[in-house]
Design a protein that fits this description.
Shape: elongated
Largest sheet: 4 strands, mixed
Number of strands: 6
Oligomer: single chain
Number of helices: 14
């Protein structure tokens, strides 16, 4: 069993569907006395009450996941304590082969996904430790492992004393290297689109390391004849009318706050409904990837269709507003 990030059938690394892939190895029997604690991300250790409850169960407990080289428990500290309390001499285990750093990542993923929930301070501490051992991993990937928000990881990274400033790219959950700055990726994407106008956005994203959304933005600007703006330099937030997809989240929230105070929206049923929908969407957006990681496998197809339909409705709404704005200015 490898310590490398697992890849699911969908090609993505670190997907929630693979959280238990570490358990797919052969189950063996291990001497209880040979096993050690030390890899659990739980800062307070085991809960005596939970150990007592497990020790009183008559059903067989799931195998414990053990780091083969160090004999330390990756997942199952409470189960091991319960087996010790029963006085048993052997316990079923699945071995993990990998580095100490990757073993801790596996411990965090498994403990954060099932059993007793990890408290927020434990998840933050785990993120800090993974940042130190895997600085090349993206904020979103580490966030998905530890079940924290990507902005939490970004804040921990900024406050870290480790010097990872020489890294100009980070490894994403899809297993690909992504540039920290998308400027170079945008330039390359624009060049590819000029040479191959029919190339898919997904292929552009794969070849340049940028997201599909960024590739779409580059194509939109090229189609509008704004070649220089296909890879823009950082600028201040625009004061005038919004350009679709270009405003930072903070500026969008400010616009929504202004709209929420507008009497023509605030004091009409249709206006209030629109404001509620917009507010819910903005609140959902930063958490979308974490929420997606937690979606059960059998629900993904249907939710994908629902999400695409919702996104299409918002896009059609935005395009209709833009058409009305152009008509008003033309008049």
């Amino acid at each position: 069993m490898s310590g490398q990030p697992e890849r699911g059938h969908d090609g993505g690394a670190g997907r929630s569907a693979d959280l238990f892939a570490v358990r797919s190895g052969e189950v063996e029997q291990a001497e209880v006395e040979s096993l050690r604690d030390g890899l659990s991300p739980r800062l307070t250790g085991v809960s005596p009450a939970h150990v007592q409850r497990l020790a009183g169960l008559t059903d067989d407990l799931p195998p414990i996941v053990v780091h083969r080289s160090s004999r330390r428990v990756i997942d199952g500290s409470h189960r091991l304590a319960a087996v010790r309390a029963r006085g048993e001499r052997t316990v079923p285990v699945v071995y993990f082969d990998g580095s100490d750093a990757d073993a801790f990542v596996a411990a965090v993923r498994l403990n954060a996904a099932h059993g007793m929930p990890l408290p927020a301070q434990d998840r933050a501490a785990a993120a800090r430790r993974i940042l130190a051992t895997h600085p090349h991993w993206s904020d979103r990937w580490i966030a998905s492992v530890c079940r924290v928000a990507p902005r939490t990881v970004a804040a921990l990274r900024r406050g870290s004393t480790d010097d990872d400033g020489r890294l100009n790219a980070r490894l994403g959950r899809d297993g690909r290297s992504h540039p920290i700055s998308a400027a170079a990726g945008r330039r390359l994407a624009a060049e590819i689109m000029r040479r191959h106008p029919d190339v898919s956005l997904r292929e552009v994203a794969r070849r340049t390391g940028i997201s599909v959304g960024t590739a779409f933005d580059v194509r939109r600007k090229l189609a509008a004849g704004d070649a220089a703006d296909a890879h823009p330099a950082p600028t201040a937030a625009p004061v005038g009318p919004a350009r679709p997809g270009t405003e930072p989240a903070s500026a969008v929230r400010e616009r929504l706050a202004v709209l929420a105070r507008d009497p023509s929206l605030r004091y009409t049923d249709q206006g209030r409904a629109l404001l509620r929908l917009a507010s819910a969407t903005l609140a959902f957006a930063p958490r979308a990837e974490l929420i997606a990681e937690a979606v059960p496998g059998h629900c993904r197809g249907s939710l994908h269709a629902v999400a695409v339909a919702c996104a299409g409705s918002w896009r059609a709404f935005a395009e209709h507003l833009a058409d009305q704005e152009r008509t008003a200015h033309a008049g």
